[in-house]
Design goal:
12 strands
Length: 575
């Protein structure tokens, strides 16, 4: 929790105001029983109506001021706590934005969502309570003890029994609650994961008639979370009754021993009533603290998870001293590149060396699992090579600021993803100032103009999150058009033509040739027909380059490439 306190520093003045207001509220609360004692001792006992009215009027005035102060304190306390939650949420989001694929895989999408929503909310609610109860309760408790001692010292000896007893009950509850709250947050992650997988894969689930299985998965995760949450609630369900028992027994003890002292003339009735009020204030303050401490374990567990995200150093960071811009434009080279995923026994890529120049189409082909996608993910630094260098514009990508690197690359991933919004919003994702003419031109090159024109609102047609409102082929063509609008120096297509029919694929490649004639184009493809016309084809087998050349050259010199071609094309097509 202390590591998140830095987010409260900008609000020091507001917090100071809240503290002053709450202390004033506590003092006013402590003053009222004293006035009540004076009315009983000096007004009612002596029949002085004027004294009763004067002192009663003063009590009413203090109560009104108390109400105003309380409202203002709660307002600024809530405002500060909400701003604190906003800042923490923003910091977590910015931290996640800087994560590489390795950190994202380590935490998991479901867990990161939970940490930035539910966990931040738990800490935020604790901040709300802290800026009210945590400040008010100790002032009321300490002030109550002082004022109780002023009323009667011998009777105050009850505090030596009551407060330690309440401390023991609270301590036992907190010691058992903290691990349970950690488990609750972990199981909330699990619920999010199951729901996310169901919503993302709903078509597959229904196609394979696995709805009942998914219901069982959810019920299992839900029941597990419910059972843990019930254990927590059962634990604190015993705390409050225990507090009430102590509270009521203390009231009985005060009235019993206080009545004897009044009967012996050692204490006035008004002082006994004031002492009882102060004792109630002390016990209520302790109970308020208990209510807050119910939230502390869960908020502490949430704070640990938030701090874990904030303190995670991304494995891929911008260089402290970036390299200067190179005169080369779009040149991409791999020099002895090897890559191993964190924790993996064997490398995915071994000593890969080749280059791709502007005005050329370089294709990467290989069997499934040969490392094609991993290789091109090194270009935009989604991962960093464990050995060797990846160069863009003759500069090692690790010596280049990532935003400068990404500005040079138009990347079309294997899974085309569209964002919620309109068609135009998605196309302008890489170039916000693109004109409608630019968008239609990119759509025409991507063979997408026809179906976009047929949409009800054309470029302004809404697109559902993920692009689920369009077909797979349409989604791929829109993703390609999005990259074309950007007009980068380097185009990277990661198996981005797989959902297209052969005729559309051929027209798209022909149009791309004209559109990208001055740029470097790197294409990963499973379909041989997509890359047959490439200027250079790189053949990967188990992470190693086993052949580089044109289609005709590789048919003569590379057995792996020949096997791939023969598995897809007839002898006539090969010829």
């Amino acid at each position: 929790m202390s590591k998140l306190a830095r987010f409260l520093k900008p609000y020091g003045k507001q917090i100071a105001l809240v503290v002053v207001l709450l202390v004033a509220q506590a003092i006013a609360n402590l003053y009222l029983p004293d006035l009540n004692a004076e009315i009983i001792n000096n007004g009612i006992a002596q029949g002085d109506v004027d004294y009763i009215l004067r002192t009663g009027g003063l009590m009413v005035g203090v109560t009104l001021v108390l109400g105003i102060v309380s409202v203002v304190a709660v307002y600024f306390g809530a405002k500060t706590a909400m701003a604190f939650g906003r800042d923490v949420r923003s910091a977590v989001f910015r931290a996640v934005e800087g994560f590489s694929a390795a950190e994202l895989n380590r935490f998991g999408t479901a867990s990161l969502i939970t940490r930035n929503t539910n966990d931040v909310q738990q800490v935020q609610m604790l901040a709300v309570m802290a800026l009210n109860i945590m400040i008010l309760a100790p002032v009321m408790a300490i002030g109550g003890v002082v004022m109780a001692l002023r009323q009667d010292v011998p009777l105050s000896g009850l505090l030596l029994v009551v407060i330690p007893l309440m401390g023991v009950v609270i301590g036992l509850a907190l010691s058992k609650a903290l691990p349970l709250f950690r488990a609750v947050q972990a199981k909330t992650d699990r619920i999010n994961q199951v729901v996310r997988e169901y919503l993302s894969g709903v078509r597959v689930i229904r196609a394979f008639v696995r709805t009942a299985h998914e219901q069982e998965r959810f019920e299992e995760a839900n029941a597990d979370l419910t059972e843990t949450a019930l254990r927590v609630q059962r634990l604190f369900a015993t705390v409050m009754p225990a507090m009430m028992v102590i509270f009521n027994l203390t009231t009985v003890a005060i009235l019993l021993f206080g009545a004897r002292r009044v009967d012996a003339g050692a204490m006035q009735v008004g002082n006994l009533m004031a002492f009882l009020a102060y004792m109630m204030q002390i016990l209520i303050s302790v109970m308020m603290a208990v209510l807050m401490f119910v939230m502390v374990p869960r908020a502490a567990a949430s704070a640990e998870r938030i701090v874990e995200v904030l303190e995670t150093e991304p494995s891929i960071r911008d260089p402290q001293t970036p390299a200067q811009e190179s005169e080369a434009c779009g040149f991409v080279a791999f020099e002895g590149v090897s890559f191993r995923y964190p924790g993996a026994e064997h490398p995915v890529l071994c000593d890969v060396t080749f280059s791709a120049a502007p005005g050329e189409v370089t294709a990467i082909v290989g069997s499934t699992g040969s490392g094609k996608s991993t290789l091109i993910n090194l270009v935009p630094r989604f991962y960093d090579a464990t050995e060797g260098r990846v160069l863009v514009d003759c500069v090692d990508v690790r010596e280049m600021p990532r935003e400068r690197l990404w500005a040079k690359i138009g990347f079309v991933p294997q899974k085309a993803f569209l964002f919620s919004g309109t068609v135009a919003d998605n196309l302008r994702f890489g170039k916000p100032d693109a004109t409608d003419e630019d968008l239609w031109h990119a759509l025409e090159v991507a063979q997408a103009r026809e179906f976009v024109e047929a949409m009800p609102q054309g470029l302004d047609t809404p697109v559902a999150q993920g692009g689920v409102s369009v077909s797979g082929g349409q989604r791929q063509r829109l993703a390609i058009a999005r990259a074309l609008v950007k007009k980068p120096d380097v185009y990277v297509f990661d198996d981005s033509f797989s959902a297209l029919d052969f005729a559309t694929d051929a027209r798209l490649r022909k149009a791309l040739r004209r559109e990208t004639r001055d740029a470097t184009v790197i294409i990963v493809a499973q379909r041989v027909s997509t890359i047959m016309d490439a200027d250079r084809i790189v053949v990967l087998d188990q992470g190693r380059v086993v052949g580089i050349g044109t289609h005709a050259e590789l048919l003569e010199t590379c057995e792996t490439y020949r096997e791939i071609v023969e598995s897809q094309l007839t002898l006539e097509e090969i010829a």
